[in-house]
Recover the amino acids of this structure.
């Protein structure tokens, strides 16, 4: 039987590991759950107080009524802390429980670590089960830790940066929820002048149904340093909804460069309500490369505050929406200093009634002369009923700014297919070539193995396109 138009082959991700949970918090969010998480992790008093303060803020906020529809997300039906192993933070894959290790082997994590990574972490449910950094990178003074371990080993660094200036605990309702129940994640510290040439990676896997995952990523890149960090995520599909509300905070020092790559391939029953923000000092560069492919509902807008003169932010993202999916994504840039620059390139594919939305913001301060910003949104629609929205907001308070915005919407048309078929290419391969060309700007920015994986995710067969 032929598939319809465009499909993601999720067989690699939709398997469910037969793992017995060692702990599951009762459903619903309250002070009892928050206190248990903090006590179980043996956290300092200041972190518990921050969690409780965030819980109070969360309980006083309303669920956002703009953007994607969140009315079917019942927060009282979720468990906010689930553990499936007594082994945490193992430095060898041989120490990881067999079934959990098998899960990450299927996802290709140990293989990727051997081939291209300088360090790797793996989180299963609410706990990091594996974490390792190459000795030669560690010798440069680089810190790469499970966030829970970093809180114990480097409490002063964590307290200085954790949800203070970058993403405050009251940033929005789901940021407050995250601050109250966060667990696991990644902490990276790169000393001044150190350039890490091999990427570091963390993989986050939800295996259980009816849970929330709330990993926290905190990256601090000191003056003239450089780091590439990759996050990947997946979950099997269930009939019950799940929630992913992680948080990423990135501090880019003067002249430093951080490349953050994220491929989020959650299942269709997952609400992906992530928060990502970077503060960039003088002449620093933040690069966001984002792929949103799997979740039923996504609201995600990686944001950059260009705080220092000459700072730069580049965003490159792709979103895919199949039937029943709503991908509401984009990027925000705040030009707060002179001669800062930004580029936003957003691509989307919607199929057979899927909905994609670019929602973005560029804001140039009155005190920021000589700024430049370019926004480009490209959408490809396939099948009947597909939707693509572009909602840009550009606010310029300085008449020296140079700002451009361009948006295009296209389809896979008969002429393109006919031209390729006239060269001896099959119809299915012709469509594959067109879509591969469409996503090529994102793929070419990924390490080779991840670029191949992104292309393999898209399996195409054509029976028609929108009229």
């Amino acid at each position: 039987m032929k598939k319809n138009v465009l499909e993601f082959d999720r067989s690699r991700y939709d398997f469910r590991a037969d793992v017995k949970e060692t702990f599951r918090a009762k459903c619903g969010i309250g002070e009892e759950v928050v206190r248990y998480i903090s006590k179980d992790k043996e956290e300092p008093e200041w972190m518990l107080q921050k969690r409780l303060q965030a819980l109070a803020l969360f309980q006083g906020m309303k669920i956002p009524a703009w953007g994607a529809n969140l009315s079917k997300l019942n927060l009282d039906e979720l468990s906010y802390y689930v553990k499936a192993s007594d082994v945490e933070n193992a430095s060898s894959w041989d120490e990881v429980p067999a079934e959990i290790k098998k899960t990450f082997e299927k996802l290709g994590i140990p293989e990727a670590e051997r081939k291209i990574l300088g360090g790797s972490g793996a989180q299963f449910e609410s706990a990091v089960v594996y974490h390792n950094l190459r000795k030669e990178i560690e010798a440069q003074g680089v810190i790469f830790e499970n966030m829970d371990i970093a809180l114990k080993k480097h409490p002063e660094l964590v307290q200085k940066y954790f949800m203070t200036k970058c993403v405050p605990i009251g940033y929005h309702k789901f940021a407050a929820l995250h601050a109250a129940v966060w667990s696991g994640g990644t902490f990276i510290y790169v000393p001044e002048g150190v350039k890490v040439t091999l990427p570091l990676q963390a993989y986050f896997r939800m295996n259980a149904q009816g849970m929330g995952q709330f990993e926290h990523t905190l990256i601090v890149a000191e003056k003239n340093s450089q780091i590439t960090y990759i996050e990947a995520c997946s979950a099997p599909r269930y009939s019950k909804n799940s929630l992913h509300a992680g948080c990423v905070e990135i501090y880019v020092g003067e002249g430093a460069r951080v490349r953050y790559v994220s491929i989020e391939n959650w299942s269709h029953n997952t609400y992906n309500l992530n928060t990502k923000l970077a503060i960039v000092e003088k002449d620093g560069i933040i690069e966001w490369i984002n792929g949103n492919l799997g979740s039923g509902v996504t609201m995600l807008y990686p944001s950059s505050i260009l705080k220092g003169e000459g700072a730069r932010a580049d965003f490159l993202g792709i979103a895919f929406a199949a039937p029943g999916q709503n991908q509401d994504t984009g990027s925000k840039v705040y030009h707060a200093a002179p001669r800062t620059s930004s580029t936003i390139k957003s691509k989307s594919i919607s199929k057979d009634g899927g909905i994609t939305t670019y929602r973005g913001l560029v804001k140039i301060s009155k005190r920021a002369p000589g700024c430049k910003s370019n926004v480009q949104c490209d959408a490809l629609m396939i099948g009947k009923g597909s939707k693509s929205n572009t909602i840009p907001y550009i606010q310029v308070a300085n008449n020296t700014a140079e700002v451009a915005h361009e948006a295009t919407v296209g389809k896979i048309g008969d002429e393109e297919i006919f031209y390729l078929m006239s060269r001896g290419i099959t119809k299915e391969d012709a469509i594959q070539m067109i879509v591969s060309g469409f996503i090529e700007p994102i793929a070419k920015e990924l390490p080779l193995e991840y670029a191949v994986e992104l292309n393999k995710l898209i399996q195409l067969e054509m029976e028609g396109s929108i009229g």
The radius of gyration is 22 Å.
